[in-house]
């Protein structure tokens, strides 16, 4: 079974048609959960070794978290990634993803949406904060960006950027699917004949004022994007909602990095998937 899975994943990287077909099949409701658990089991031993080696770092992060629910969510998902024991699977949050109750909004909000997709997070933000100062949205996938423009380009308070948020200004290779799986190649650790070059920008280079909220769900590029926002974060201390589920390293290093930048941040963790899926884990930071 694992050989079949590895063959499928390799073919998805080499063939665009094969990638599209398998994506549609494997993400059908009857297959989705089993596909995700098989995918994770392939790397189960690697995760077990990684978290065992870094147990002190995991415990240090757990001790940083501001409430018991965060600690249970974080440690529960770490344990589940190593064991796939259903009893370890943490409770799924019923809050809006990226909008925990601890976040308070006002009419001066400057919201940076990194990985804006087709504007779904912007829609939720507008419900929470109908009166705001400005929204800046990054979306590198050209197909997603066209849908984003249709929905929000008429709003003069929303700036749409067809580029990825990163640690530099320039170009990088990008695997474009026209859905939420599109990603910068170097964050995936793969090679593909179907990559395209896209523009990337650092948040610091935009010289934005009074940034108050940054959300990132950018398929493993979060740490690089945070490094490109270092000055903005230190200066403005915005609320942060950062996805950390894309790799085992992200589950540790992103929290460490944010704590290094602003030690006084209160950190929270919530997850929004259902057994056996290990996606949609968000680290929140509140000044």
Describe the structure.
- With 287 residues, this protein is α/β, with parallel strands linked by helices.
- It has two domains: 1-42, no CATH class; 110-286, 3-Layer(aba) Sandwich (Rossmann fold).
- The protein is 44% helix and 18% strand.
- It contains twelve helices and eleven strands.
- It has helices at residues 2-14, 16-26, 29-42, 44-53, 55-64, 68-83, 120-128, 142-152, 185-188, 222-227, 230-236, 248-261, and strands at residues 110-114, 134-138, 158-161, 164-165, 170-175, 183-184, 196-201, 213-216, 239-243, 266-271, 281-286.
- The chain is globular and about 50 Å long.
Class from secondary-structure proportions: alpha/beta
Q: Going across the major beta sheet, what is the strand order?
A: 3-2-1-8-9-11-10
Give the number of helices. 12
* Beta-strand percentage range: 15-25%
Radius of gyration: 19 Å
Count of strand segments: 11
Q: Report how far apart the termini are.
A: 47 Å
Largest sheet: 7 strands, mixed
Classified in CATH, the superfamily of the largest domain is Vaccinia Virus protein VP39
- Provide the CATH architecture of the largest domain: 3-Layer(aba) Sandwich
CATH class of the largest domain: Alpha Beta
Unreliable stretches covering 5 or more consecutive residues: 8-18
How many domains, as an integer?
2
**What is the element string, with H for helices and E for strands?**
HHHHHHEHEHEEEEHEEHHEHEE
| Average of the residue pLDDT scores | 87
In helices, the fraction of residues equals 40-55%
CATH fold description of the largest domain: Rossmann fold
Shape: globular
């Amino acid at each position: 079974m694992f050989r079949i899975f590895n063959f499928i994943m390799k073919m998805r990287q080499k063939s665009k048609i094969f990638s599209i077909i398998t994506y549609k099949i494997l993400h059908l409701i009857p297959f989705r959960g089993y596909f995700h658990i098989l995918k994770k089991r392939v790397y189960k031993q690697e995760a077990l070794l990684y978290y065992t080696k870094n147990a002190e770092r995991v415990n240090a992060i757990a001790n940083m978290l501001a409430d018991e629910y965060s600690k249970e969510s974080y440690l529960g998902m770490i344990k589940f990634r190593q064991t796939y024991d259903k009893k370890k699977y943490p409770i799924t949050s019923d809050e809006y993803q990226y909008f925990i109750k601890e976040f308070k909004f006002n009419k001066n909000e400057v919201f940076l949406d990194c990985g804006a997709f087709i504007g779904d997070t912007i829609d939720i933000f507008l419900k929470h904060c109908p009166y705001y100062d400005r929204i800046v949205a990054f979306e590198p996938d050209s197909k997603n960006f066209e849908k984003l423009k249709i929905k929000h380009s008429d709003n003069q308070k929303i700036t749409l950027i067809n580029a990825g948020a990163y640690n530099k200004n320039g170009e990088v290779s990008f695997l474009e699917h026209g859905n939420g799986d599109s990603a910068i190649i170097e964050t995936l650790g793969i090679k593909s004949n179907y990559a395209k070059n896209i523009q990337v920008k650092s948040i610091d280079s935009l010289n934005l004022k009074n940034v108050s909220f940054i959300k990132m769900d950018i398929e493993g590029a979060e740490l690089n994007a945070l490094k490109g926002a270092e000055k903005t974060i230190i200066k403005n201390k915005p609320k942060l909602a950062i996805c950390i589920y894309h790799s085992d390293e992200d589950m540790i290093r992103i929290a460490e990095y944010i704590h290094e930048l602003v030690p006084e941040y209160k950190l929270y963790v919530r997850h929004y998937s259902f057994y056996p899926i290990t996606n949609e884990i968000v680290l929140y930071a509140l000044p």
